[in-house]
Amino acid sequence: MSLCVVSLAIAGFFWSQGATLVMPFAGVELLAVGIAFLAYARHAGDAEKIILQSGQLVVEQEMAGRTLRAEFNREWVRVEPRDGDGSLIEVSGQGRSVRVGRHVRPELRPALAREIRSALLSS
User: Fold this and answer.
1) CA distances (Å), origin 13, targets 3, 64, 68
2) pTM higher than 0.90 for the full model?
């Protein structure tokens, strides 16, 4: 909000000095800033949860305000990197598959896959 106030104040000063085209350009600038904030706000709450409970592996993904949930029977789950090192992790079983790891750095995704496999085996 302060960015908008400062921009409008500067544009208003120059508009009052006779530079009439400053105000439309400031309006376009503020519109672009508003669109950027909306795009950021839409994805600011994106998250992935992987839960192992009572024989089920539950994957919940929240993207742009929508929540997708996939449940897999623990005994039938396969966990593998999609295309090699650094790619998303594919969790599949019972004819369904989900890719996870979007919010993990690519070099840490193999460790996440190993941790998921370990949790599936130990429980």
Assistant:
1) 16, 39, 50
2) no
Q: Which three-class secondary structure state does DSSP give residue 63? A: strand
The region, left, alpha or beta by phi > 0 then psi within -120 to 50, assigned to residue 84 is: left
The helix/strand/coil state of 82 is coil
Give the separation between CA 100 and CA 60, rounded to whole angstroms. Answer: 9
How far apart are the C-alpha atoms of 77 and 113, rounded to whole Å?
12
Q: How many CA atoms lie within 13 A of 107 on its CB side?
A: 0
Distances from the Cα of 23 to the Cα of 1, 15, 18, 37, 76, angstroms: 17, 7, 11, 21, 62
Segments in the chain below pLDDT 50: none
pLDDT, tens only, 39-61: 999 889 899 999 998 889 999 99
